Amino acid sequence: MTAQEPIKAPVHSHARARALEARWQKLCRQYLPRAPNDSMWRYHSASRNRRPAAGWKLHVSATILNAPTIFKKIAPLLIERDVWFKAPRSLDEVLKLNSGLIYDYSQIGKIVTVYPQDDREAVYLAGKLHELTRGLSGPVVPFDLSFGEQGSVYYRFGAFERLEIEHRGRRALGLRTPDGKIIPDTREEPRPEWVADPFLAHIPRRRNSRKPASPALRVMRVLTQRGKGGVYEAIDFSGDTPQLCLLKEGRRNGEVAWDGRDGAWRVRHEKRVLSALNARGVPVPRVHASFTRGGNYYLVMDHLSGETLHDYLIRRSYRVDLSRVLDWGMQLAAFLTKMHEAGWAWRDCKPKNILITSSGRLAPIDFEGAAPIHRPDQSLWGTPGFTPPEVRQGEQTNGATDDYYALGAILYFLVTGKLFDYEQPAPIQSLRKRVYPELRILIESLLNTDAGLRPRAEEARAQLKAIALRYPPRRVRVTDAQAA
Q1: What is the CATH number of domain 217-302?
Q2: Which residues partner with 85 through β-bridges?
Q3: Class of domain 14-202
Q4: pTM listed for this prediction
Q5: Closest among 100, 196, 184, 103 to 145, alpha carbons compared
Q6: Rounded to an integer, what distance in angstroms lies between the CA atom of residue 388 and that of residue 392?
Q7: 58 forms bridges with which residues in the sheet?
Q8: Which residues, in sequence order, are bridge partners of residue 59?
Q9: Model confidence over 284-319: pLDDT tens digits?
Q10: Is the pLDDT of residue 477 over 50?
Q11: Which of 259, 263, 336, 378 lies at a CB distance of 3.0 to 4.6 Å from 251, suitable for a disulfide?
């Protein structure tokens, strides 16, 4: 069974987005006249004959909210200095860059890229760009070197001309060394060993800056990584006995949405949600500690081992047995019932947020987008494929009906191996024969475009239980010859 889940993205304020996008487009037309149809970038080409084959690249970081302001401040300087530079053709592309999902993780924050002619110009421009963008910070650019603490300017040495080489069985970008060899131009190595760093003597420093203390943790491995933050497997040494734990990170300025919320805000919010749910006996991960470091917010949580339902479905070559579909459906419906009774809507119920433990039990995770049912969040949230049409169309909901739809979408996915598309719905019977008619009717009712007609989670659980009792798992008799 194969599937590719779309990325999660908050439904934004259309008026604010349109206004900012209009400003961005005006600036692009003014300063970046070159806009190739096959590129996400717009360019300004300097009048100089050609740029160097390699050198120091400057990256100016920004969010979708301050990108027009930052660009308006720095573009006149770059035009005056007659340097090459580029920026994304739209703020939607800025959003994609900063997510770290659509494009490579190393591209986060690289909103304006500047190609200085030499080291001297690179150092001069870095200083000027730092001054112009003071107080307008963006996400940290992964692997790049920072020009000043809490600044927006980053730099790395790399190729200016596009060179491709074969590296470990794949095509990769190359960098020409002084002796003429072409090596991989890796983003993880911002300064090759043969290059001196001309910026060090000019980087502004903060005096008496101290990093706040954090729990005694040792990160063992990265589990997930994206613009808004990462999730890490770690060992907590703060107690009498070392404990395996999960460390969840919310980054300052990470994946800033149109409502201004960043990764740090979302992880802080998740702590509030988990605390409220734990107090009501809802089975969610426990938070052991939290702390702030470098503007980022961290949660130390229960370690949950298992495979996500998404990964489980991806690696399967055949459909899930209907008895297992019913079992998992009942577990998920029971969880949603408890969560809703506690007064919260999940709003991001999807296979990537559900772990399958070694015992076969489902363990829901990730509650950054959860909201009180009786005080709906004005910022709509969800993942395409598991979000009802009314949310994708920008309507305000109480969140609970979103969860009913998501339950139906997951059941549809488990039964058919396909994501449900409400714009072009494929009947279940056309994708899989001999599906219990009661199960098919339940899934269709959960996916109803009229939110008021979707059965509640407790009703769905009762129906799933009734179907399971009517159609018990088939038992296959094993002969002596088969056992041998």
Answers
A1: 3.30.200.20
A2: 44, 114
A3: alpha beta
A4: 0.88
A5: 196
A6: 7
A7: 114, 155
A8: 113, 154
A9: 999 999 999 989 999 999 998 899 999 999 888 788
A10: no
A11: 263
Residues 450, 437: Cα–Cα separation, whole Å: 21
Considering the domain 307-470, what is its CATH architecture? Orthogonal Bundle (1.10)
CA distances from 48 to 42, 45, 81, 158 (A): 18, 8, 11, 20
436 contacts 466 by C-beta, under 8 angstroms:
no
Task: Tell which residue, 296, 301, 360, 372, has the closest CA to residue 331.
Answer: 360
The phi and psi torsions of 428 (rounded to 5 degrees) equal -60, -40
For 313-371, write each residue's pLDDT tens digit: 988 878 899 999 999 999 999 999 999 999 999 999 999 999 999 888 999 999 999 99
Q: What are phi and psi of 86, to 5 degrees?
A: -145, 165
Name the residue with tokens 């903060």: 206
d(Cα 338, Cα 271) in Å, to the nearest integer? Answer: 18
HEC readout, the chain? CCCCCCCCCCECCHHHHHHHHHHHHHHHHHHCCECCCCCCEEEECCCCCCCCCEEEEEEECCCCCCHHHHHHHHHHHHHHHCCEEEEECCHHHHHHHHHCCCCCHHHCCCCEEEECCCHHHHHHHHHHHHHHCCCCCCCCCCCCEECCCCCCEEEEEEECCCCEEEECCEEEEEEECCCCCEEECCCCCCCCCCCCCCCHHHCCCCCCCCCCCCCCEEEEEEEEEECCEEEEEEEECCCCCCEEEEEEEECCCCCCCCCCCCHHHHHHHHHHHHHHHHHCCCCCCCEEEEEEECCEEEEEEECCCCEEHHHHHHHCCCCCCHHHHHHHHHHHHHHHHHHHHCCEECCCCCHHHEEECCCCCEEECCCCCCEECCCCCCCECCCCCCCCHHHHCCCCCCCHHHHHHHHHHHHHHHHHCCCCCCCCCCCHHHHCCCCCHHHHHHHHHHCCCCHHHCCCHHHHHHHHHHHHHHCCCCCCCCCHHHHC
